[in-house]
Amino acid sequence: MAQSIDYGNLMHRAMRSLIQDVLTDVAANGLPGAHHFFITFDTTHEDVELAAWLRDRYPTEMTVVMQHWFEDLEVSDDGFAVTLNFGDSPERMFIPYDAIQTFVDPSVEFGLRFETQGHDLDDEEDDEDDLADEAPLAEDAEEAPAAEGKKDADVVSLDAFRK
User: Fold this and answer.
1) 112-129 residues labelled b (16+ CB within 10 A) or e (exposed)
2) Cα(16)–Cα(77) distance, rounded to whole angstroms?
3) How, if at all, do strands 154-156 and 110-113 pair?
4) Residue 157: pLDDT over 60
5) In this structure, how many other beta carbons lie within 10 angstroms of the beta carbon of residue 95?
6) What's the pLDDT at 87?
7) Number of Cβ within a 10 Å radius of residue 1
8) What is the 3-class SS of the chain, one letter each residue?
C-alpha cells in the first residue's frame, strides 16, 4: 500500500481529462461563441508529432492558437491531432496531453498550468503573472483580438499542494 496519496498526479490526470472533454466537444460541435485556446506544449516530448521546420523553429516549447482556422481535430485518450495554419501553410500535428504545459481560454479567463516536479515554489507567483502575457506563436495569432481591458486568466497551479 502507498505511504501517501499523490494528489499532484491525481489533479494532473483530472485536468488533462478536462482538456480531453473540452476538445472532444469542440471536435463534435465547433468552438462556441468567443471561446478560443492558447495551448503551450513541450516540443521535445517523444510523442509530439510536428513538422521538421516547426520543431527547428520551436526546439523546446510552442504555443498554438485554436480559434478561427483549424481543421480535422481528432481527440484520443492520449492526445489530440489538429491541422493548423502557419502563414498560409497548413500543418498537421499531434500533441499528447502529457506534453501540454498550459491550456488557456482567455474568452472566459480560464487557464491551467502543468508544473514539473522540479519547479521552484519561489518562482510560482512570477510564473502565474506571465501566463496571460505570453504571445501566441502560431495559427491565427495575427487574428487574435487584443486583450485590452481584460483581466488576466486565472491559473490553477498544483505545486502549492506538493511536499
Assistant:
1) bbbbeeebeeeebeebbe
2) 10
3) parallel
4) no
5) 24
6) 82
7) 2
8) CCCCCCHHHHHHHHHHHHHHHHHHHHHHHCCCCCCCEEEEEECCCCCCECCHHHHHHCCCEEEEEECCCEEEEEECCCEEEEEEECCCCEEEEEEEHHHEEEEEEHHHCEEEECCCCCCCHHHHHHHHHHHCCCCCCCCCHHHCCCCCCCCCCEEECCHHHCC
pLDDT tens digit string along 66-103? 988 889 999 999 999 999 988 888 999 999 999 999 99
At residue 148, the pLDDT reads 38
**Cell numbers of 104, please?**
488557456
Distance in angstroms between the alpha carbons of the first and the last residue of the chain: 19
Give the global pTM.
Answer: 0.69
Question: What is the grid cell recorded at 36?
Answer: 478560443
Closest alpha carbon to 39 in 28, 52, 26, 29 = 26
Determine phi and psi for 33, rounding to 5 degrees.
50, -130
Q: What is d(CA 1, CA 24) in angstroms, rounded to the nearest whole number?
A: 35
